[in-house]
Amino acid sequence: MPDVFINYRTGDGHQVAVTIERALSTRFGSERIYRASKSIPPGTPFDAHLIHSVRRSGVLLALIGDQWLGHPGLQDAGDWVRKEIQEAFLCDIRVIPVLIGRRTERPSKDGLPMPLGKLADCQSLRYDHQNDESDLQQIGDTLAALVPELAAVDSQAPEEPEPGVLRNTMSDVHGTAVQAGTVNGDIGSVKGAHGSVHIGPSSRTIHQSGAANYVEGTNESGIRQYFGQVPKGEDDER
Which portions of this protein are annotated as coiled-coil regions (predicted)? Predict the structure, then answer.
């Protein structure tokens, strides 16, 4: 079953259809991208094959060149370019106009036959041979985002990190430094820190100004604090 049906008119977008089909076939697999001259086996009745393939696709790409709108076939109810787009709309299949070249504009409703009027409201993509690499990438990325079956076989999908793998980067570090998910036991000491330093499993903010003591946990021996001269103890007088 094709996921993408490429709709084009011979003489107005045939070469671009070949270019786009080959790029998408390389990325997602040839059997998922439908182009009539490639996909219809010899001796097969093409009319039934075309309609059946449109109905089973996830997206129809309607290639529109600079002569597409003025072609007389567009006003003919039996024209296959028109029939394929109409069938996609009837089956509630997403239709994406692909404008060929920099100057081709999206058709307006006034210039379209009534059955194709919805085409004017469809968000379009663009393919220009002078920007083909970027445009083909965008077309492929768009299709992968819209069709889960394509995303599952996307040969250009970014690799996801393995579960449980921690990747961090540290630079300009002097002394002890640790980056980890779970740490058991003690690790080094903190000296000469400026700003926030996290040293435990919870968040703490401690503000001190002047002489002060901070105690957390159990203190059994009391606190002795002297300001100014330290008094002599009994041992100092011996």
Answer: none
Q: Burial of 64 by CB count in 10 Å (0-12 exposed, 13-18 middle, 19+ buried)?
A: buried
Query: Distance between alpha carbon 149 and the CA centroid of its chain, in Å?
Result: 15
What token pair was written down for 17?
Answer: 């259809």
Q: Give pLDDT tens digits for 72-125.
A: 999 999 999 999 999 999 999 999 999 999 999 999 999 999 999 999 999 999
Contacts (Cβ under 8 Å, ≥6 apart) of 104: 64, 65, 66, 68, 126
Q: Give the torsion through C-alpha atoms of 53, 58, 62, 63, to 10 deg.
A: -90
Write the CATH number for 93: 3.40.50
Is residue 169 in a domain?
no
Q: Which residues contact 11 (CB under 8 A, 6 or more apart)?
A: 67
Low-confidence ranges of the chain (pLDDT < 50): 237-238
Half-sphere exposure of 218 (CA within 13 A, CB side): 1
17 in any annotated domain: yes
- Would you state the structure tokens that stand for residue 193, as one six-digit string? 């820190």
Query: What is the extent of the structural domain holding 119?
Result: 7-99+114-151
Structure tokens at 198: 């996290």
* One-character DSSP codes across 100-149: ESSSPPPPPGGGS-GGGGGGGGS--EEE-GGGHHHHHHHHHHHHHHH-HH
